[in-house]
Design brief:
This protein is an all-alpha fold. The chain is built from 15 helices and no strands. The chain is about 70% helix and about 0% strand. The radius of gyration is 24 Å and the shape is globular. It starts with 12 loop residues before the first helix and ends in an 8-residue tail after the last helix.
Length: about 300
């Protein structure tokens, strides 16, 4: 006797295809709203982003922009986590295995890569350093060419965590040893100072860093106005690069006993010779030398 089959819970293939098509269409429409939000400010910007997420809860970029605009680190962490989850839904649970080594080159992975970087940075600000480091390491593994510049954030995090051996491995690796940016060079000098004090090796490393960017000591002095947000673009050796580096790492220098004073004493002659604004140089040198001393500069 044939048993009667009850009502099936399986979604017909035609309906599933329609739903997939609709989801893709909604995500595309949501992304268009994100582009409009990027050109807007204030409530209008927020409204575009909220509407984008109403259209598609998988819109990674909308979460990321809301996270960047958030007024608290906690809210930023929450939104970036949502962004990463959305990216995982879009790419599939096995996306890390599927795209390992080719991330970023496969354009569909870029939203989640940006979200992971944003989450790591917020976690670092929230003193959740170990989780931040895990994300930085994962991003470097997924994208060995490091198109995002994760190596700079990883280096800072490793220094802060006291992972000196791993940091030395990064700084001296064949891939990044000749990195033209000032960031790794200044961090290498700071690491040598922390390990060996004002040694010849540390001073030589600092002078190499100064040649890469002569403006870093000026902005590290905290005596000159800085923008609220890092520059969108910078060139090797220019002031924008110095501002970007100082905004990301000034706390490392200030939290390392004697580091800014050592910088002032080691680079005084070089700064006076190579920088045109002599008044700014003297102000910076005095601030670097005395900033963390008990005696205020005269």
């Amino acid at each position: 006797m044939t048993k009667r089959i009850g009502k099936s819970n399986v979604i017909p293939m035609s309906k599933r295809k329609a739903e997939i098509g609709s989801a893709a269409s909604n995500l595309s429409a949501a992304q268009e709203l994100v582009y409009r939000a990027m050109e807007s400010k204030g409530k209008q910007r927020a409204n575009f982003l909220r509407t984008a997420l109403e259209l598609s809860s998988d819109c990674v970029a909308a979460y990321c922009l809301l996270a960047e605009d958030s007024k608290s680190i906690e809210e930023g962490v929450k939104l970036f986590r949502q962004a990463v989850s959305a990216g995982q839904r879009v790419l599939g649970e096995d996306w890390e295995t599927k795209y390992k080594g080719v991330c970023w080159m496969a354009h569909e992975t870029r939203p989640i890569m940006r979200a992971m970087c944003g989450l790591a940075q917020q976690l670092q600000l929230d003193d959740q350093l170990q989780e931040a480091l895990e994300l930085y390491r994962k991003l470097m593994m997924l994208n060995p060419n490091d198109n995002q510049g994760i190596r700079y954030f990883l280096a800072d995090g490793l220094y802060e965590a006291g992972c000196d051996e791993e940091l030395e491995g990064l700084l001296n690796s064949k891939q990044w040893k000749d990195d033209p940016s000032a960031s790794l060079k200044y961090t290498a000098a700071l690491l040598l100072f922390r390990k060996t004090g004002s040694s010849k090796a540390a001073e030589e490393a600092l002078k190499i860093a100064f040649k890469a960017n002569r403006y870093v000591p000026i902005y590290l002095s905290d005596e000159f106005e800085m923008p609220k947000n890092p520059p969108d673009y910078y060139g090797f050796g220019d002031e924008s690069e110095a501002i970007t580096y100082v905004m990301q790492t000034s706390y490392l220098w200030h939290d390392t006993d004697g580091a800014t004073k050592w910088m002032a004493e080691s680079l005084a002659d070089d700064m006076r010779k190579s920088l045109e604004d002599k008044e700014a140089v003297e102000i910076a040198l005095k601030a670097l030398k005395y900033e963390w001393d008990d005696v205020e500069p005269a």
